[in-house]
Amino acid sequence: MKKSILLFLFSALILLFMPVQSHAATTQTKIILDGQELNLPNEVEVVNVRNNIMIPIRVVAENLKFNVNWDQKTQNVNIQQGSKTITLTVGKQEAYVGNSAVFLNIAPQIIKNTVVVPIRFVSEEMGLRVGWNNKEKIVTLASTTSPPSSPANGSQNDATTNLVDEINYADNQPVVSLDREITPQSDATTNLIHELNYANNQLVVSLDREVTPVITTLKNPERIVVDFPATDFGNMSQPVPTGSMGKLSTGDIPNLTEVRYSLFKNDPAQVRIVIELNNVSSVNYNQQYITGKFILDLDMVNDPTPATPISGSGKKIVVIDPGHGGSDPGTTSITNKHEKHFNLALALKVQAILLQEPEIEVVMTRETDVYPTRSERVKLANDLNADVFVSIHGNSVLSSPQTTGTETFYYQRASSKELANIVHKHLVKALGLKDRGVKNGSLQVIRETKMPAVLLEVGFLSNKSEEEAMMSESVQAKAAQAIVDGIKEYLKL
Question: Does domain 191-302 fall into CATH 2.60.40.3500?
Answer without folding.
Answer: yes
